[in-house]
Amino acid sequence: MRILLTGFEPFLTHAANPTALLAERLDGAEVAGARIHGVKLPVAFDRAADAFVEAFQAVRPDAVLLFGLAYSYDEVRLERLALNLDDAASPDSEGAVRRNRPIVADGPMGYWSSLPVDLILDRLNSAGLTAKPSRDAGGYVCNHLFFRVRHWLETQGLDIPAGFIHVPPTPDLLTPADRGRRTGWPLEGIEQAARLVVETVVDSARSA
Fold this sequence. Notes:
Number of strands: 8
Radius of gyration: 16 Å
Order of helices and strands: EHEEHEEEHEHEHH
Strand content: 15-25%
């Protein structure tokens, strides 16, 4: 079984992105008998999905795990829904700002994650890795990628597990104002969570 795991490049004021490091660390790793292919994507509305499709066609994975940074949270967040909407005040890495704009004009309102979200949540929390469900992935490039990936898989007739997971910042990324009241997660903890996500997706696929 092959898993395509994506992370994002640094963006906005963040000097690093733990999901890019995660993709680098897990590229080539084997977890629960599955081979992971880690890929780093640009934080750009116009390029992220195209870079994903290129990676997908090279890997031909059996499952897709999209990871992004959620700076404001100190837990893993499993996204349930990808909305057909770009709506963010912050620019992407190329300076583009998208407000109240459909991602695919004739597309559906949204797509559910096709990962076993509740099972993943249970396993992460049972392992002491705090995780919560999130209704949707927001209006920035994370949600844009999530929607475009699910839409592309649907239009290609590819019925494989695919979903988006937000992870917390590492301690070094916290601003001075946040360091006294938040902890962030060490990269090792984020990797541990990602490995457990992979294991759960593999187990779920094998038992289906």
